[in-house]
């Protein structure tokens, strides 16, 4: 049950987070020196990278979904729009594969390298948003579990869209926390861009609107002085997706007989 302290409601930890404008929270979760934070993030990244790279080297085969994404990327390469949009519609992952392939990498190698790299990088925003919600200790424990959990490692080197989505999902949660807690336009814009990319990687990206709405509601209720900035930032964030879809259809897909809106 919500309790009142000094006239302000308190919330479960899931709905509260560190705010740069809140001195109490600053004392509770002090900023780490850049050097300390840098080496911690470096250790976490290497802890994720080594087992994933090793498993990718040992495993010579790929899953069936990997061949499907490669064929979709190949369809984009040859301008076969009907086959490219047959199932995924607007999706960034085949375009990432196509970009890496255009650099001279073989399809499967490109997919594996990207998956290993992006799944390892996912630990950085994961550490960031968990640290802001809970503590450094909880963030370290969570990231350690992510880095070495067999199921995560097994799926992290396959040339599928899942590792990319993990990265974007965690990055979106991090930018959401920064945007809502600091009420700064640049973070709302960044959040809108990452949210758009996540939605156009997997349709589950729409679920990221739930924490955005909950955390916005919390800040709206607690910090009345920030309501105008929160409202303006939310408009900026939610405007990115339709603007990107409009831009893509009017430029890259301008010769297509119908508009593609994504899934």
Encode the helix/strand succession as letters: EEHHHHHHHHHHHHH
Give me the number of helical elements.
13
Radius of gyration: 20 Å
Domain module count: 1
Mean pLDDT across the residues is 86
Q: How are the strands of the largest sheet arranged?
A: 1-2
Helical/strand content category:
mainly alpha
- Spatial gap, N to C terminus: 39 Å
Low-pLDDT stretches are 1-12, 19-29
How many strands in all? 2
What is the strand and helix layout of this fold?
Elements: E1 4-5, E2 8-9, H1 23-28, H2 34-58, H3 64-77, H4 81-84, H5 92-102, H6 107-121, H7 123-133, H8 136-148, H9 150-156, H10 162-182, H11 185-199, H12 209-222, H13 227-250
Antiparallel strand pairs: 1-2
Helix pairs in contact: 2-6, 2-8, 3-5, 5-6, 6-10, 7-8, 7-10, 10-11, 10-12, 11-13
Label this structure with key terms.
263 residues; mainly alpha; two-stranded antiparallel ribbon; 68% helix; disordered N terminus
Would you give an account of this structure?
With 263 residues, the chain is mostly helical. The protein has one domain (43-250). The protein is built from 13 helices and 2 strands. Strand 1 (4-5) and strand 2 (8-9) form a beta hairpin. Helix 3 crosses helix 5 and helix 10 (162-182) runs parallel beside helix 12 (209-222). The longest helix has 25 residues, at 34-58. The two termini are 39 Å apart. Mean pLDDT is 86; it is low at 1-12 and 19-29.
């Amino acid at each position: 049950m919500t309790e009142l302290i000094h006239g302000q409601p308190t919330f479960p930890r899931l709905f509260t987070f560190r705010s740069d404008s809140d001195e109490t929270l600053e004392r509770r979760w002090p900023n780490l020196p850049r050097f300390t934070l840098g080496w911690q993030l470096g250790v976490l990244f290497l802890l994720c990278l080594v087992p994933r790279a090793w498993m990718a080297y040992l495993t010579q085969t790929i899953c069936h979904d990997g061949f499907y994404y490669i064929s979709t990327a190949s369809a984009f390469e040859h301008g076969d729009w009907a086959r490219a949009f047959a199932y995924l519609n607007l999706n960034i992952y085949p375009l990432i594969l196509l970009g890496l392939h255009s650099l001279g990498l073989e399809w499967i190698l490109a997919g594996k390298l990207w998956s290993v790299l992006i799944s390892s990088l996912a630990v950085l925003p994961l550490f960031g948003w968990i640290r802001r919600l809970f503590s450094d200790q909880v963030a370290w424990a969570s990231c350690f579990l992510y880095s070495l959990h067999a199921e995560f490692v097994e799926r992290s080197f396959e040339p599928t869209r899942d590792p990319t989505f993990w990265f974007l999902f965690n990055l979106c949660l991090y930018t959401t926390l920064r945007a809502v807690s600091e009420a700064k336009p640049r973070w709302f814009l960044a959040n809108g861009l990452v949210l758009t990319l996540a939605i156009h990687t997997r349709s589950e990206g729409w679920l990221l609107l739930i924490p955005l709405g909950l955390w916005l509601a919390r800040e709206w209720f607690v910090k009345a002085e920030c309501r105008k900035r929160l409202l303006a930032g939310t408009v900026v964030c939610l405007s990115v997706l339709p603007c990107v879809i409009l831009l893509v259809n009017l430029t890259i897909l301008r010769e297509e007989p119908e508009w593609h809106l994504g899934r």
